[in-house]
Amino acid sequence: GKDTVFLYDSHIEGVEEDLPRQAKKIMAIPAIELSKKELHPRVFNVLIMGAVIKATGVVSEEEAKKAIEKRLGYKFAQDPKLRELNYRALERGMELVAQAG
Hints:
It is built from 4 helices and 2 strands, in the order ββαααα.
């Protein structure tokens, strides 16, 4: 509907024709490239999560970090650098939307 937020990767070409015209917000963000170059391909989904959170305001950054912690805490215990990487990905996703908006 008209409250829809539509996010897609700016890397994907030729999608302009298929974008939902009635969406409230349509944003292209360089998520794939950014997670590869700046972070790690594995945190691509967390970057997207950050973007969605910022675009929709559905949960706060704090709540998102708590959810990541709950889900991946056991991995962070083994490798604390992973926490930093995931949090950074979340923040970068949020920043991308803030810049695009």
